[in-house]
Amino acid sequence: MSNGPESTNVSSLGKGDSLHHQVLASFPLCDMTEEDLTQSPQFCKLLATLAQHVDRTGLTATLKTELDKAEQKLQSQRRHWLRSESLHRGLQEMIQDHCVRKHHTTFYETMEKCLLVVKCTRLLDPSSTTNQDQPFILGLNPQQVMELMPSEKNVLRMKQSLPRELEKHLKKSVGVSSPTTKNESEGLKNTKLSHLSAQLDKERKRAEILKETCQENTVLLQRQTQLYLSELTKCIQLLQSLILDHRLKIQTDLDRKKLDYFEGKCELVLQKIKTEMVGIQLEMYTPDSIAAHRKIREILESELKACQEEKQSVESKLASFEILGKEFVTLAEEYSRLRREIETKNWALKEFTQYKTK
């Protein structure tokens, strides 16, 4: 039973993409996208139902009405305060202007004393938020300060002349008169001035509406930027996949060409190395050195051949000796010992002979 009205309200807003657009339009300040609403349909329905009870800023009708009333009351109090403040500042400017010009008249003296006495009375008068038992400043009370007011006769004259003098001062301080207002009557000018606050309120509201529109446009621009970036990311990913597929197809031919190139380059380097080696040999070996090397080679080869022949003969003799057995080894060792003794005695005899000759 509880789902009947809710489904009816949601169906009245729309279905599918139209519902998403209406929800996004109803909550422009929320950072949401259609993808978020698509992934959360129940949340989308909740927002669609909630949109019928709140405005674009998220306020209910009752709260909006109370807020408007509070805003009107605030504006009324603000206008009242601005009116009093502008009047007070205008009076102070008038007093300062005549003090500078040294025009000491009874009117301005009376007005200055009245303002000063009222200001002091407010400072001495304790408010409801202060302690009533607090001692007065300099032992004075508001009644004593009020005794310093000018005479009633002068105050009455000042009040009678105040509107006229204040009007003159305001016209003089503004000092701007358009061609269209020169021929207007004083009543019409006063009427326009009375409607000036209302016009300012209209302009302020218009500025606020434009500010809200600007904020909504900013949020919309951010959402569109996010969508654009997401689509751009998808396009980049698709382009990367296409580039990868194309690269894999031509990778074999590219590798083969690279291999042929490196093989040719290696062959060229080897030929260059051989050329450098031949050049070094040509610089190092002259015809005379080559002829000498050839002669040395022939001599070494002949000596090597003679050594090899001697080796073969020794090996054949050694083989024939090994046939005789262990007795021949004993005789050979005895023969070697005798040979060493003979050589030793010959050396000693030679040395003795040389010593004897000396």
From TrEMBL:
Region (Disordered): 169-188
Coiled-coil ranges per UniProt: 290-324
Taxonomic superkingdom: Eukaryota
GO CC field: HAUS complex
Pfam families xref list: HAUS4
GO molecular function list: microtubule minus-end binding
PANTHER family (UniProt xref): AUGMIN SUBUNIT 4 FAMILY MEMBER (PTHR16219), HAUS AUGMIN-LIKE COMPLEX SUBUNIT 4 (PTHR16219:SF1)
UniProt-recorded name of the protein: HAUS augmin-like complex, subunit 4
Organism from which the protein derives: Sphaeramia orbicularis
Lineage start: Eukaryota, Metazoa, Chordata, Craniata, Vertebrata
Recorded name of the encoding gene: haus4
